[in-house]
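JOB MANIFEST
job_type = single_chain_structure
chain_count = 1
residues = 176
[input]
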Amino acid sequence: MRRLRQIRQRVGREVTICLVLALVMSRIDYNNSALASLPQSTIAPLQRVQNAAARLVFELCTSDHVTASLLELHWLPVQWRIKFKLCCIMHSVFYGRCPAYLTATAQSLNASQLYLDQCLRSTSSTVFLLLQLHTKFGERAFTHAGSAAWNSLPEHIRAEPDIRVFRKLLTTNLFT
């Protein structure tokens, strides 16, 4: 970060943003879906790195708040980035655009399985099966964490087949 601060003084904000995205944010996003359901104390160091990157871009002091800066940069907090990644993977699973080993991990439910008494429901559902778990460790598995993240989304977002529109809707949903 110290070298980036020195470079920041010589280049503009846009170049700094590109450098931070390439050097810092790509590392935060790398394999972050493996961080699902971890305690906040484990994710907090990554959030501090993201906050430091936002302070670098806007030349803020360490005592300044970074929430407004994160919003201006359109950077989701780390906790939401993890959920975003899980939901994007589950979108690929749901619409069959992923390898077979991922499709086998998540099981989609039919509406008829959910609502046996109500015959008026459609036969297709965008909900995935959530198994009953006995440990917190099991909640970190992709099978559970991905399905839980996907099922928490509103129906109109889950039903969007286009990945670009889905990502925009998901980002908007997470920011609100």
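[summary]
The chain has ten helices and no strands.
The chain has a mean pLDDT of 84.
exit_status = 0
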